[in-house]
Amino acid sequence: MLVKLAWRNIWRNKKRSLITISAIFIAVFLCIILRALQLGMYDNMINNVVGSYSGYIQIHSKGFWDEQIVDNSFSLNEDFLNEIESIDGVSNTLKRIQSGSLASLSDLSKFVFVTGIEPSKESSLTNWEKRLIDGQLLTGKSKSLNIGKGVAKYFDLKIGDTLVLLGQGYHGMQAVGAYPVSGILDLKNPTLNKITVFMTLSNAQDFLSAKNMITHLILNKQENKDEDAIALNVKNLLNNEAYEVMTWREMIPELEQTIKADSAGGLVMVFILYMIVAFGIFGTVLMMTQERKYEFGVLISIGMKKIRLIKTMIYETILLASVGVFLGIALSRPIIIFLSPIKFPEEQAQMMENMGFEAVIPFMNTYDIPLTHGFIIFFISLIVCLYPLSVILKLDPIKAMKI
Amino acid sequence: MRQIIKIAWRNVWRNKLRSFIVITSMVLGLWSGLFSASMMSALNNQRINSAIKSQLSHLQIHHPSFQDNFDIKYQINGLNKVLKALDENKKVNSYSSRIVLSGMASTARGATGVKLIGADHTNEINITDIHSHIVKGTYFSGGTSRQAVIGQELAEKLKLDIKKSIYLTFVNEDGSQERLKLKVVGIFKSGNSIFDGSHMFAQKDYLDKIFGKEDIIHEIALVSNDINQAKELKDELLKAFPDNEIELWSEISPELGYANEMLSFFLYIFMTIILIALSFGIINTMLMAILERKRELGVLMSVGLNKSKIFLMIAMETLFISIVSVPLGVFLSYVTISYFGDVGIDLSMVEEGLEQFGMGTRLYTELYLDYYINITLLTFLLTFISSLFPARRALKLEPAVAVRSI
Questions:
Q1: B40 and A22: CB-CB below 8 Å?
Q2: What is the ipTM of this complex?
């Protein structure tokens, strides 16, 4: 009966209900938007810094990270690769082999890292087309090189010139080769630009006499998946004695630290927003209570028990809050899906793109953000509802019915 | 008109609880928003400052090819003219000219690639703050001139301690290999482990003696009077010396510049969201207030207060509330931000986390003036817009119906 009463109360004064619902709706909506943006910003920072080259997770042979030589490489059979790729959250894998070499052209020579890559797959990490400044990208069968623009500048090199590479191959083999340069890349990272020489994986394996061997296996994750959980799964799958599994957190600790410091501040921001929306809801409920004092007075004087009135209020609040929360979640979805990513103002965007970063903030699109925040606001509404309840408890019907 | 304003003002104070709630939420919202923004930007600035002070400086000048391979022969073009220009330029606070040798540092225990920075250390202390990050030994002292100050990670890699010798092998201008023997007098920890693992400092006088001349300079690191002038200064210098490479700190370390841009943009988004939340709080509360005052408004209408006056009255009420709260909120923020800007917030609780950035344990809040101004204007604009909704709502009341409502 009381639920029915609450339901009718809501429909009796539609304007009033609408205002209360909209207060709760705005609260849920804004909290979801803020949090989705915040987490999206960190995700984008990580994506920009690690996603373009180092990847989220790398598998090496044990000891490679401390001593990056080609002897610390490993071979990977297909079954094993399939098993890793089938781990939940892994979107694809990239094989690389990397070794330091001396590159020379006429009388100049320079230390570079020769990296063998699978050209078609690398484009899943980053848009290579955008990075190409001159010449052509490597394709599956190329016998040529793509080099960083810093290397090209050092040798004052043009497309078609031939670089002589001299390095240490697998198990002490001599690695020597002369390769034409077919493309110059801007890797958007000053250090990488100066030391990077790419060739195809099979070409590099020949060059280093390391047939079927690789030094890095890079795992890419699907969007919004947790790389730590994936790394743990990979670790369980692999023989820990022979391999090391590293996430970007271990490979680039500085970025991790920066994000940690920022996200502490981010939580403060969310807390502040909660405080403000709580005040907003409270202000609305406060005025609602004042408006209804007369009505409460009448009900009590015709004999309704205060406790039953309180119950009705609670049902009303639950109904209104549920509708508000539901609307907030529902209406934030299209924004998160269609407005993402938010673009930077022109001037800043230019500057950031020059630095090699994407000047956007995408929304983090997960389900736990709306659920958590919807639940919190629902809870806040219930707490705010304590105010009308205390008013009812203290209500003196005679006074309340005077206007 | 004056009467309406007066009535609106009194109406604000008639329902004290309502006005109090709205004013508190605005003041608190502005205050906490601005204060947390100031904390965030202070955190960010301190992080950048620590990187600028220990390694980047505001600007660095090199030969355009020097940074490709740190080849000793690529020295700064037209050195004397550059130095003269720097001496004369009023934007330059101080600068340090350095010899930079890239080579192999070795001891009996191991070898690793390093960058040796040879500078006049009495001058260098104006540019970098390595001298205040010494964890063991001293930052150069009298006695032998073959002194070296090395990073902590480097010391660990090579198992070095103070008073031990370190050898640096590098390629000289004529292509021959040279070997220097230096004595470690101090070990520093700047907070950036990569920097600490690959850098050592030596005295320029000693290197000058080795090379037999004084004008080998690969790098000029300079600090301008104000970091915001650095970009202008760069453009000026680049115009005067197009044959040198001149880079801003954000170009030397793009990641840091990126985080900086990202954050300042995000702070604006954050404040906008806060302000939207505030205005909706106001709108909803005032709308509900209209419902509560239905009868009162009905009476006013029936005794002849015309619609435009009703509209004005309600809009004025909302505006008055914001006129009271905005200055209060901004003033409160200003006072706390400048207080904690002087005294600092003790962050010793999270000290460990901050030390990794090479920051102190105190956070000094700060916020630019234009941020205050923008936020104040934005708040007024939003409250103006939000004052229109309840006023419009009031217009829709039917006097005859409203009077009878209870």
A1: no
A2: 0.73
